[in-house]
Design goal:
By secondary structure, the chain is an alpha/beta fold. The chain has six helices and six strands; from the N terminus they run αβαβαββαααββ. The relative contact order is 0.23.
């Protein structure tokens, strides 16, 4: 019987890829789950839940995502300044107008593990509101999701 082989950190880092995702016309939740899968590395046969084997993901055109139902007016994003009375809330509609990249970032963050490993995996996500990104040197591959 063969023993289970677990890849080392160096092998995992050597196999990391860069992917670019165009969010134009994509549904927010469906896109976020697929991005979270790639960030965690669950699309690879060497996936291990205790290791960061995921790839880098670049998301462009965030302002063109689609949100179903009444979520634009019923979903709120909260932040607090840590001072008394410092709670600030914005609806998804306001957030999409001002910071569309944060909407996708928060949706993906909610689908990642709430541990040190999950926070480390989130550092591999890059989100941009427009079609341009500064990561051309990494030669990212286009990642297509079937909807």
């Amino acid at each position: 019987m063969k023993a289970t082989v677990s890849p080392s950190e160096e092998e995992i880092k050597a196999q990391r890829e860069w992917y670019v995702v165009d969010a134009t016309g994509a549904t927010l939740g469906r896109l976020a789950t697929q991005i979270a899968t790639v960030l965690r590395g669950k699309h690879k046969p060497t996936f291990s839940p205790n290791m960061d084997s995921g790839d880098f993901v670049i998301v462009t055109n965030c302002e063109r995502i689609v949100v179903t139902g009444k979520k634009l007016d019923t979903v709120f994003y909260h932040r607090h300044s840590q001072y008394p009375g410092g709670l600030h809330s914005r609806s998804m509609r306001e957030q999409m107008e001002r910071f569309p990249d944060r909407v996708i970032y928060e949706a993906v963050k909610g689908m990642m593990p709430k541990t040190r490993l999950g926070r480390a995996q989130m550092t591999k996500l890059r989100v941009y509101a427009g079609p341009d990104h500064p990561h051309a040197a990494q030669q990212p591959k286009t990642l297509e999701f079937g909807e």
